[in-house]
Amino acid sequence: MSLIEQSSGSSFTISPVSDVIGAEVVGLDVSQSLDPETLAIIRDAFQQHHMLCFREQTLEDDDLVAFSSQFGPLEVYPEKGHTKDKIEVYHVANVSLSGDHLPAEDPTVIYQRNNGRWHTDSSYRYEPSLASILYGIEVLPDEAEGGGTGFSNMLAAYAALPDGMKAKLEPLHQVHSYADIRRLEPSIPPMSEEERDAFPPVTHPVLRVHPDRDYQRSLYFTSNTSLEIGGMTLEEGKALHRWLVDYVGHPEFCYSHRWRKNDLVMWDNRVLLHRAIKYDFARYRRVLRRTTIAGDATVMGPFWPEARAAAGA
């Protein structure tokens, strides 16, 4: 059932779109600055549902930046050729910034192909991102296959793990490396010296602890920057990574968002993985714009003093 919220004389609805992830927000114009009451309602809904889709928005890049900045500072993107006018706005598309439909071998398209792997945005940063916000400018027609965005709930995935697997994962870490995208997709041009200096490899615990969620745990890993888990032999780490990728794709953890033109989708990178769902790059155009809300802390793992205290250790 939809929940109708009243704020400063206006009304909008927030309705869950699945049992595990997401809600749609209808009737709220996010091109206008949100008053404190509305912003608090949206923050609460975001914390509860992890993903919000604001329907029927009309936004320019300035509007997208203004809306996003209400939730925190924005990241700037390392790939300078993928931004236009504003370095906080990333061009997610198989179409060039000048409007040309790009061939499958173009690096811009290959980046999108790599995003078909389960991942969490900006995990290659020492303080990974809080949230991503994506605006649908050109989307696939209804009859087309694919082109959506899949989400997987890492809180639910962790909770459903057998106790033995939870214990196995507890001490493990994964290296997250922006450079390693080239290992997975060798045709992407090498990083510049400036990019290498700005984004050295980092390591994060595979189990993430969330102080703002009463120290709940979630899985935290990626498959678009590396394909191994550290803390064991290389082959064991690769095998465990393959198992995790398969596991988080189970339907009971997942929701697939079918894009409509002018959707604005905001999701929590701390507790969700996402992936672009494959489509015919040559036949269809797909253009979205993304901002990313910066994180403000390193990833807390199970052995942090606060996490151990919360667990009664």
Tally of strands? 16
Shape: globular
The CATH class: Alpha Beta
| Widest beta sheet: strand line-up | 1-2-3-4-14-7-16-6-5
Distance between the termini: 41 Å
Radius of gyration: 19 Å
CATH superfamily: Clavaminate synthase-like
Q: Which bin fits the share of residues in helices?
A: 10-25%
Largest sheet: 9 strands, mixed
What name is given to the CATH topology? Double-stranded beta-helix
State the low-pLDDT regions, or none.
none
Helix vs. strand class: alpha+beta
Overall mean confidence score, pLDDT: 92
Percentage of β-strand residues: 25-35%
Question: With helices defined by DSSP (H or I, 4 residues minimum), what is the helix count?
Answer: 9
Order of helices and strands: EEEHEHEEHEEHHEHHEEEHEEEEH
The second-level CATH architecture is 4-Layer Sandwich
Number of domains: 1
